[in-house]
Amino acid sequence: MKRCLFFLILGGLLWPALGLAEDGREADHKLDEIVVTSTRKSKAVDTPASLSIITAEELEDMGAKNIVEALSKIPGVVDSSSKSQSVVIRGNKSAMAGGPVLLMDGVPLKLGDYRYSEFDFIPVNQIERIEVLRSAGIAYGPGAARGVINVITKKSKSEGVHGDVSASYGSWDSHDENVSLYGMKNKFDFLVDAENYHTDGYEEEEENRQSVLGRLGYNLSDQSRIGLRVNHVDYDNQTAEGLKKYQWQLDNYRREIHFPKSETDSDLLWHNEKDEKNTTVALEFSHKAEKKFFDSSFSWATYEKDFRRTYAIYDSPTSVYYEDSDQDTYSLTMSGGYHFDFGSVSYTPTIGIDYEDIDNTVGRIYPYYPTKNTDTYNFDLQEKTYGVFWDNNLRFNEKWGLDAGIRFDRTEVEFQDKVPNIVDEDRDMFSYSIAPSYHFNDQAMIYASVGRNYWFPTPRYYAWAVEKGGSLNPVEDLEPEEVLTYELGYKHLFSKAFNINATIYYSEYKDKFGSVYDENDDSCGQGNIGDAEAKGIEIEADGRLCQYFGYRVAATYQDIEWTSGTAFVYIHPDNTRDYTADISGKQIYWVPEISGVIGLDFYPMAGLKISMDINYIGERYVDYLNQIEYPDKTTFDARASYTWKAWKVWVLGKNIFDEDLEYASNSSGKLNSDGEPNNAYYVQNGAYVEAGISYHF
């Protein structure tokens, strides 16, 4: 019934849009923007790929405190946050690892040996826009098979000196202060932005983030610029033990950071603490002439993490440990091309290279168990990736187009702990993409594409394999996930009343990862456990029907299932164990079939905007065998803002009816003694209210 209601509302919104479309189009529509998450800069409407854009204005309107809040409103993107903020694009996920490639101004953020996407690390106020690429592409190497999220930070674009100051206060003692100064003088441009953010958190989990972004550029000419970018983020938080709660704890201690171990054990579980620092220094050079273009970036990034796992400090202090991680990353990216005209045919080849060198050292101590052997927890890791691509864009009579490219990547992983366990592995990966297109005009196109790319296993997967993989999961058997994707896409800026971006896709996943266990229930790490296929439809549409009303729609249908593979599971209702259960034909867990957002915008008077979002996410399976289902959820957001001259004030509410939201984990489908699922729940945010003010000068 809810699915029918969702599509009835969707159809009801789009039908009047088709009938009320007017001549003339808002010039600042997102499909008109120049995107950089490709091998060459082009308008979004001309890019033959499934690509979505989130603007700074949209981030401000929704009051996002981390970019996951915004990403979850994009078609094909699902919030899978548990112990850290994370998303899944098109269902391509695995446990204990990062997801999509996360970039900051084109530079990969690969932090730590688990490679989680540190979305909390990115100050929302410093973002100009976010580009989300779901298609197979060759612009970025290993990891792109799970999608690409490119966060583009703010830049100065105005002559003179300007500034912005903003502050907000919300639920759970959440406050966010931001100040920026930017401008252009003679041939120089500059920007300095500083942010301070604090929250006690829905679960009494305190977070603090201080960040600074600095840019200085010198414009050699109207076509060439050399620039320096410096980012620094200091982030710390306290979290409940993995944020994990079982049913009794969920029912009785939903928002507490400290809670009893169980109904029969009153020993308290304490909180964990994490302090992180990240500094990036990047030297950038770009040149764009009528015929030729060139972009390059050389960056150095340092990352420090101190983690204190103190959950059992009053129950079992010998299990308490402190872990520190230090990482240095050097990255180089260069790409350039030339535009040839041969009458009715134009040809633009682009050639690029990438190099990345990551050096990570991890150490661990047990302060209340100083004699414990920690040899497997103290290690050095080095990962190097070399990439080269060649992309070709052809246009025939300004109507027909063909994008075709190839890419080669080589990744080398070296790992050694104090046992010593040693890893010295390398893999070669060959990617390609072919996309013919037809451009009805400069505001509409249809394309088809086929492409192959990869997701390279995180260093932690290699560490587990060499430490405990044994004969079931030897390190030499770990292979990158390979994804082959077919797409059909349609983009059209009809008018200010109706614009659409739609994609139909089919993907084949080879060598997907999952947990491997032996018959003693001992973990053997993460290994390639099978193949899968996905098919889906993604739709974005928006428009301004009249001066008083606009709408936004994002809808997703996705059917993602295993085609082959085995996994460790519990068989219902007897709760018997099967270490090699056939999972072929089963849906991949935690991926809803239907999800979407319907947004309504009202403009009752000059300067006043009132908006409402209805967010729907369908039922999801929790386990490999699809024996446990998590119910669908519908949440509502509302906001109002008023702009007067240089001032802006706003109030907003998120999840205003306080729907209970959790990430549920129980991939094996284990049951308790009473026959109920032994689900672990990671509580997500509840109802949130905020007010804020900003001033521009």
From TrEMBL:
<dbReference type="GO" id="GO:0044718">
    <property type="term" value="P:siderophore transmembrane transport"/>
</dbReference>
<keyword id="KW-0472">Membrane</keyword>
<dbReference type="GO" id="GO:0015344">
    <property type="term" value="F:siderophore uptake transmembrane transporter activity"/>
</dbReference>
<keyword id="KW-0798">TonB box</keyword>
<feature type="domain" description="TonB-dependent receptor plug">
    <location>
        <begin position="45"/>
        <end position="148"/>
    </location>
</feature>
<dbReference type="Pfam" id="PF07715">
    <property type="entry name" value="Plug"/>
</dbReference>
<feature type="domain" description="TonB-dependent receptor-like beta-barrel">
    <location>
        <begin position="218"/>
        <end position="651"/>
    </location>
</feature>
<keyword id="KW-0812">Transmembrane</keyword>
<comment type="similarity">
    <text>Belongs to the TonB-dependent receptor family.</text>
</comment>
<keyword id="KW-0998">Cell outer membrane</keyword>
<dbReference type="InterPro" id="IPR036942">
    <property type="entry name" value="Beta-barrel_TonB_sf"/>
</dbReference>
<keyword id="KW-0813">Transport</keyword>
<dbReference type="InterPro" id="IPR000531">
    <property type="entry name" value="Beta-barrel_TonB"/>
</dbReference>
<keyword id="KW-0732">Signal</keyword>
<dbReference type="Pfam" id="PF00593">
    <property type="entry name" value="TonB_dep_Rec_b-barrel"/>
</dbReference>
<keyword id="KW-0675">Receptor</keyword>
<feature type="signal peptide">
    <location>
        <begin position="1"/>
        <end position="21"/>
    </location>
</feature>
<dbReference type="InterPro" id="IPR037066">
    <property type="entry name" value="Plug_dom_sf"/>
</dbReference>
<protein>
    <submittedName>
        <fullName>Ligand-gated channel</fullName>
    </submittedName>
</protein>
<dbReference type="InterPro" id="IPR012910">
    <property type="entry name" value="Plug_dom"/>
</dbReference>
<dbReference type="InterPro" id="IPR039426">
    <property type="entry name" value="TonB-dep_rcpt-like"/>
</dbReference>
<keyword id="KW-1134">Transmembrane beta strand</keyword>
<dbReference type="GO" id="GO:0009279">
    <property type="term" value="C:cell outer membrane"/>
</dbReference>
